[in-house]
Write a structure and sequence with these properties.
- The protein has 6 helices and 5 strands.
- The chain has helices spanning 2-61, 86-92, 122-130, 171-174, 182-194, 212-218, and strands spanning 63-70, 76-81, 116-119, 164-165, 222-223.
- The strands form 2 sheets. A 3-stranded mixed sheet has the order 2-1-3. Strands 4-5 form a two-stranded parallel ribbon.
- It is elongated and about 110 Å long.
- The termini are far apart.
Length: 224
């Protein structure tokens, strides 16, 4: 009997010695499980956020914004599907007005985000012809206005064209340049006379009526 009691006392003693290490182990395990839970939660949130960003990028790429101006029913900025064409932008704005003339724009051209579609009126085209700023091969009426709907000219033979010296050319020679009529040709001659000639071809934008857009069209055909 005494031996049995001694055995129980020894077991109780051993059990007491194991309580503290067991508690430490349980705390460690609980902390480790909690840490894993937090990590999984963070990873899940990151995946969800990545999905949201990806969806936003996809949604953004599905649409473009086009500025429609000129002779249309309701000018303004319109949201269109990617790969929309000029005709789609015009239709989105309610169609052309009665005085519109689409002869000098490419209705089938595919548009990019931020493009401008300018629909000219017949009156604008006639006035441009009177000023000699447009010929039948020239698509853009108003060189000061960006127009991504314009028919692009074939410039493959431009390098073979003899360049015009803007310091020596007479009025008739200057008028052979795209967008240069009587008024602009006279302005060029007056400027070079008053300023001792052009020091560079870029200086031509200082001439009244010569915009950066017009300069970009003629720069390959002029010299000093």
């Amino acid at each position: 009997m005494d031996d049995f009691l001694d055995y129980l006392n020894n077991i109780e003693f051993d059990f007491k010695k194991l309580i503290f290490p067991t508690i430490i182990i349980l705390i460690f395990v609980a902390g480790f499980v909690y840490l894993l839970t937090i990590i999984k939660h963070i990873e899940k949130n990151e995946k969800n956020n990545n999905k949201i960003v990806a969806k936003e990028v996809i949604d953004t790429n599905e649409f473009i914004y086009i500025d429609v101006k000129g002779s249309v029913t309701t000018p303004g900025v319109y949201k269109l599907k990617t790969n929309s064409r000029v005709i789609d932008a015009i239709n989105a704005s309610g169609g052309v007005t009665e005085d519109a003339n689409t002869r000098f724009i490419n209705l089938s051209k595919v548009l990019n985000d931020g493009d401008v579609v300018m629909v000219y009126s017949s009156k604008e085209i006639e006035e441009a012809k009177k000023d000699n700023t447009i010929v039948i091969e020239t698509p853009c009426v108003c060189e000061e206005v960006k127009n991504d709907a314009c028919i692009k000219e074939d410039n493959k033979n431009q390098n073979n064209v003899e360049k015009i010296n803007i310091n020596t050319a007479d009025i008739n020679t200057l008028k052979t340049l795209e967008g240069i009529g009587d008024a602009k040709a006279n302005a060029i001659i007056e400027y070079r006379t008053n300023n001792g000639g052009f020091k560079s071809i870029e200086e031509i934008v200082n001439v009244s009526g010569i915009s950066e857009a017009l300069f970009s069209k003629i720069k390959e055909n002029i010299t000093i």
